[in-house]
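#lab-general

N.A. 3:47 PM
ok so I finally got the sequence cleaned up, no stray characters, all 75 residues accounted for. can someone with queue access submit it? mine expired

B.Y. 3:52 PM
send it over

N.A. 3:53 PM
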Amino acid sequence: MLNIFIATFALFLLAFLGMSLGYIIKRKSIQGSCGGLSSIGVEKVCECPEPCDARKKRMARDEARQKMLSKNRIL
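B.Y. 4:20 PM
back already:
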């Protein structure tokens, strides 16, 4: 019984190691294969007419980053 537990633990440890190496190498988070809510036309999860302050800050930061990247683009 202990051998099965150790083998199972090792298998899960190997799976977690593989996922973490994939994240470290590609810097891309784990995502589902179906595309999430955007694949069915839902832009946001909540039904709010306007995004919250935290989302507005994040959107502004992302937009500024994209502008900086396009401005400093080498190719």
